[in-house]
Design a protein that fits this description.
Helix content is 42%, strand content 19%. The protein is of the alpha/beta class. The strands form 3 sheets. The protein has a 6-stranded mixed beta sheet with strand order 4-3-5-10-6-9, sandwiched between helices. A two-stranded antiparallel sheet has the order 1-2. A hairpin with a 4-residue loop joins strand 1 and strand 2. It is elongated.
Length: 309
């Protein structure tokens, strides 16, 4: 006859295991990051489930019963074993993974077309993308490395510049014909301006650099540059294109640069890694591979020594 399995109340069991080790609700609450009341409530749930008293509660304190003390000694080690097994699993799962922070636009237009080469050279290393758009801070994260646009001012990190950011007006060939072409910066007033939420002042900076009085509040806004460039390819208007990212798209004729004016922004695209922890071999290989893609000297391995896992 098959034995009926008990639907164990794991959260109350965990709370009790910690409380029995510390012998106080206060210390257990501090370790688990919850309130003392929450610990007391979880243990009460367990007591109801077991139909026994695990703690004797006084006005200002709680004391383990004999049953509670024996039960705590028996299960506390089980939770320690479970935590160690989980840590081993996570370590094994991530030991061959590079956790990369990268903006979606950079991933789509620049990294993805090249990444198969890295996979071929290092088949045992996976790259996991974190595409959140927020200030880069390696503390409290599992990030190994980042590819970001900025000015080399990241905290607790080292970096290498991959390329300088340069911009130009881009659009589709059909859209360019529909507005009668562009031969000088002032002609952009004939077109519809496309904006990205995270680069909302791109047109303002471009107009300032070319000496043009342009109403940059008109046009269509998109959440990301990825959507903005897609809209430009589909003929919705003019965009301020980041040339290092869009080189392949421009070479394929999907976007054109009618003014042919490369304007540096003063920012650059960097590969960044933390200095607060040691850099793993897998991350070093990925960083060197990124530098290879732009013809920069490697940071960690001599050429040829890191081409295979």
């Amino acid at each position: 006859m098959q034995r009926r399995r008990i639907n164990l109340p794991l959260n109350p069991l965990r709370s009790f295991a910690v409380a029995s080790r510390h012998k106080t609700f206060t210390a257990a609450a501090r370790e688990l990051g919850v309130s003392q009341v929450a610990i007391s409530r979880q243990i009460a749930i367990l007591e109801d489930f077991l139909d026994v008293s695990l703690f004797e509660r006084g006005v200002r304190s709680a004391k383990l019963t004999d049953v509670g003390r024996a039960f705590g000694q028996e299960i506390s080690g089980l939770f320690d074993d479970l935590e160690r097994a989980t840590e081993r699993m996570i370590s094994h799962e991530t030991e061959g993974t590079v956790n990369l922070r990268i903006h979606p636009t950079v991933a789509h237009y620049w990294l993805m077309p090249k990444l198969m080469d890295f996979t071929r050279r290092h088949p045992d290393i996976r790259v996991r993308f974190d595409t959140r758009v927020e200030p880069l801070d390696f503390r409290g994260t599992h990030l190994d490395v980042a590819l970001q646009l900025g000015r080399d001012d990241w905290r607790d990190a080292r970096s290498r510049k991959l390329w300088d950011e340069e911009v130009d007006v881009v659009c589709s060939r059909d859209y360019l014909m529909s507005i009668g072409g562009l031969s000088q910066p002032a002609d952009v007033v004939r077109g519809d301006l496309l904006h990205s939420h995270y680069r909302r002042r791109a047109w303002e900076y471009w107009a300032r650099d070319v000496g043009l009085d342009l109403d940059t509040n008109r046009g269509t806004d998109f959440e990301t540059s990825l959507l903005t460039y897609s809209a430009a390819q589909q003929g919705f208007g003019l965009a301020i294109g980041q040339l290092g990212l869009l080189d392949d798209v421009i070479a394929e004729g999907k976007l054109v640069r009618p003014l042919d004016m490369r304007l540096p922004t003063g920012a650059g695209f960097y590969v960044i890694w933390p200095t607060t922890v040691s850099v793993g071999v897998k991350t070093k290989r990925f960083i060197d591979w990124l530098l290879d893609q732009v013809g920069q000297p490697r940071e960690f391995f001599r050429s040829g020594s890191a081409d295979k896992t």
